[in-house]
Design goal:
Helices cover 0% and strands 31% of the residues. The protein is mainly beta. It folds into 2 domains: 69 residues, no CATH class; 94 residues, no CATH class. It has a two-stranded antiparallel sheet. The protein has a two-stranded antiparallel ribbon with strand order 3-4. Strands 5-6 form a two-stranded antiparallel ribbon. β7 and β8 form a beta hairpin. The chain starts with 5 loop residues before the first strand and ends in a 26-residue tail after the last strand. Keywords: Glycoprotein, Integrin, Membrane. One of its GO terms (molecular function) is integrin binding. It is a single-pass type I membrane protein. It is found in: Membrane.
């Protein structure tokens, strides 16, 4: 018959140990099969596998036959990342007669303000850390300024590195 095991986690000699009581008393020559499901956190820095040592011990007759078995389980983190973005306004057309005012510190003298908003979403199932998003924004076309990068802002605990040439004219 199938029974649910009673297991207790504890620390022993600096290791995390899970002790499960399989049967008391157990009949001589008994054979049992145990399926265990473990939930382990903090595997982000464990590499591509985690190793467990399993050992069957008897309280009644300790012997050298109680050797441990090493089990290596592959670890694979999966996360689906989605990048969404839009520009406000979605379309911008400069008048043909418009010219930028050299040396001005007023943003409107450098063109029409366009705000680009990007959202990076983790759809799981795993958590992610150390994600790098690299955005290449064309700021020149034919040697002339196409987009003047004024500022960069973030939300949600992210950090960004300012691109070279960000607000070069201190507008």
């Amino acid at each position: 018959g199938q029974e649910k095991l009673s297991c207790n986690p504890r620390k022993e000699n600096g290791s995390h140990v899970v002790l499960c009581e399989l049967g008391n008393p157990m009949k001589a020559g008994a054979r049992i099969t145990v399926d265990m499901e473990l939930s382990v956190s903090g595997l982000e820095d464990m590499g591509d596998a985690i190793t467990f040592q399993l050992q069957l011990r008897s309280k009644n007759s300790p012997s050298p036959a109680n050797a441990s078995v090493t089990v290596t389980v592959p670890v694979e983190a999966q996360a689906v990342m989605e990048l969404r973005g839009n520009s406000l306004p979605a379309t911008t057309v400069l008048p043909v007669s418009w010219h930028r005012v050299e040396g001005s510190r007023r943003p409107e003298d450098h063109g029409i303000k366009v705000e680009h908003v990007y959202q990076l979403h983790n759809q799981g199932p795993s958590t992610v850390s150390g994600v790098t998003l690299l955005l290449a924004i064309p700021n020149q076309l034919g040697g002339r300024i196409l987009l003047y990068l004024l500022e960069l802002g973030t939300e949600g605990g992210m950090s960004c590195t300012n691109p070279p040439g960000l607000n070069a004219e201190q507008v």
